């Protein structure tokens, strides 16, 4: 028996309204054949088509697509990130929008989502998803990731938990998540484990983010028009100190030195790095190891050189947070406090 139009209207009214913003990536990718899992063009398929491929989402929410760009996420820059963040901020202010999802390339999900987590002023669920295999491939992961993300975004339990990244049946906090493998579908890992999992159309949370996010931060996306320029230098054996010279005259306000081990600085890089600081650029020591806090004055003379250290953030996450910090203060001690707070 068909439901009456009124009955189906009431059904629709009970379901949350979710806007899905399409930005590109492999979830919007297409390969030449079904066995191409790593050889394909990303950012090809429109978000409406991606949504149409998962009609099961209609059971959980009223979903609507919106294409903001069609790019591989390696091509994000501050301008694009701000455009996306500002659009989400507009949407979450609408009373008829209950949650926002973003389909995103996986390369830089960890950066965009961290920026959103630090700057959006909302308790509504904001869920970012991608895929490791294009929709044309056998065992494509995008459709289930999309469905699971809708389940998470539609759940009242997901409110107030910060920006979430849902991939491979896991719910991650934007603060901690990182892409750990170039190909595998289980690439997304969080240093301290995921917040929860999605099982049979239900989210199950097991932990909460401890660091302030969204409504509890001092950063408001609506007040930010540009991000101060911050660059990253990746340390290795036999570095070329002249590369650091470029940082003193390219408009950078800070340099994240992705040091070996505990943010260590090679003996022959000390002078060039001191010069960077003397030129006015803030020097932040981070670690290239992927985890662990950098210890102030541990192996380096931070007090003497007026260098600062990150907590456990990767150089790329520290870059975004330092840039946000610079919108508030130029004081190195204050910036370091911010790096340890979020
Ligand atoms: N799996 C992916 O999404 C990678 C595709 C592309 N490099 C991107 O990040 O958009």
UniProtKB/TrEMBL annotation:
<dbReference type="InterPro" id="IPR027474">
    <property type="entry name" value="L-asparaginase_N"/>
</dbReference>
<dbReference type="Pfam" id="PF17763">
    <property type="entry name" value="Asparaginase_C"/>
</dbReference>
<feature type="active site" description="O-isoaspartyl threonine intermediate">
    <location>
        <position position="26"/>
    </location>
</feature>
<dbReference type="InterPro" id="IPR004550">
    <property type="entry name" value="AsnASE_II"/>
</dbReference>
<dbReference type="InterPro" id="IPR027473">
    <property type="entry name" value="L-asparaginase_C"/>
</dbReference>
<dbReference type="GO" id="GO:0004067">
    <property type="term" value="F:asparaginase activity"/>
</dbReference>
<dbReference type="Pfam" id="PF00710">
    <property type="entry name" value="Asparaginase"/>
</dbReference>
<feature type="active site">
    <location>
        <position position="26"/>
    </location>
</feature>
<dbReference type="InterPro" id="IPR020827">
    <property type="entry name" value="Asparaginase/glutaminase_AS1"/>
</dbReference>
<dbReference type="InterPro" id="IPR040919">
    <property type="entry name" value="Asparaginase_C"/>
</dbReference>
<comment type="similarity">
    <text>Belongs to the asparaginase 1 family.</text>
</comment>
<dbReference type="GO" id="GO:0006528">
    <property type="term" value="P:asparagine metabolic process"/>
</dbReference>
<dbReference type="InterPro" id="IPR006311">
    <property type="entry name" value="TAT_signal"/>
</dbReference>
<dbReference type="InterPro" id="IPR037152">
    <property type="entry name" value="L-asparaginase_N_sf"/>
</dbReference>
<feature type="active site">
    <location>
        <position position="106"/>
    </location>
</feature>
<feature type="domain" description="L-asparaginase N-terminal">
    <location>
        <begin position="17"/>
        <end position="207"/>
    </location>
</feature>
<dbReference type="InterPro" id="IPR006034">
    <property type="entry name" value="Asparaginase/glutaminase-like"/>
</dbReference>
<keyword id="KW-0732">Signal</keyword>
<feature type="binding site">
    <location>
        <begin position="106"/>
        <end position="107"/>
    </location>
    <ligand>
        <name>substrate</name>
    </ligand>
</feature>
<protein>
    <submittedName>
        <fullName>Asparaginase</fullName>
    </submittedName>
</protein>
<dbReference type="InterPro" id="IPR036152">
    <property type="entry name" value="Asp/glu_Ase-like_sf"/>
</dbReference>
<keyword id="KW-0378">Hydrolase</keyword>
<dbReference type="InterPro" id="IPR027475">
    <property type="entry name" value="Asparaginase/glutaminase_AS2"/>
</dbReference>
<feature type="binding site">
    <location>
        <position position="73"/>
    </location>
    <ligand>
        <name>substrate</name>
    </ligand>
</feature>
<feature type="domain" description="Asparaginase/glutaminase C-terminal">
    <location>
        <begin position="229"/>
        <end position="338"/>
    </location>
</feature>
């Amino acid at each position: 028996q068909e439901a009456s139009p009124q009955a189906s209207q009431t059904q629709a009214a009970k379901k949350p309204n979710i806007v899905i913003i399409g930005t590109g990536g492999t979830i919007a990718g297409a390969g030449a054949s079904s066995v191409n899992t790593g050889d394909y063009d990303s950012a090809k398929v429109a978000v409406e088509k991606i949504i149409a491929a998962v009609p099961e989402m209609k059971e959980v929410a009223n979903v609507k697509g919106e294409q903001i760009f069609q790019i591989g996420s390696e091509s994000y820059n501050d301008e694009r990130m701000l455009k996306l963040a500002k659009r989400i901020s507009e949407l979450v202010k609408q009373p008829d929008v209950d949650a926002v999802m973003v389909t995103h390339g996986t390369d830089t999900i960890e950066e965009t989502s961290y920026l959103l987590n630090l700057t959006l002023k909302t308790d509504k669920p904001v869920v970012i998803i991608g895929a490791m295999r294009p929709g044309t491939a056998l065992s494509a992961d995008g459709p289930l990731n999309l469905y699971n993300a809708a389940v998470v975004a539609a759940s009242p339990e997901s409110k107030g938990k910060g920006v979430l990244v849902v991939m491979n049946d896991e719910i991650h906090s934007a603060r901690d998540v990182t892409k750990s493998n170039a190909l595998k579908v289980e690439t997304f890992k969080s240093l301290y484990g995921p917040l929860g999992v999605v099982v049979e159309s239900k989210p199950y949370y097991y932990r909460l983010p401890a660091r302030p996010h969204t409504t509890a931060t001092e950063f408001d996306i609506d007040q930010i028009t540009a991000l101060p320029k911050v660059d990253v230098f990746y340390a290795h054996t036999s570095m070329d100190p002249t590369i650091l010279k470029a940082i003193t005259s390219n408009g950078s306000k800070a340099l994240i030195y992705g040091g070996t081990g505990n943010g260590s600085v090679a003996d022959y890089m000390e002078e060039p790095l001191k010069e960077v600081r003397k030129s006015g650029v803030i020097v932040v020591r981070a670690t290239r190891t992927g985890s662990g806090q950098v210890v102030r004055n541990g192996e380096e003379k931070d007090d003497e050189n007026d260098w600062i250290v990150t907590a456990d953030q990767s150089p790329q996450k520290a870059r975004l947070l330092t840039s946000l910090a610079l919108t508030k203060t130029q004081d190195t001690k204050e910036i370091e406090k911010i790096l340890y707070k979020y």
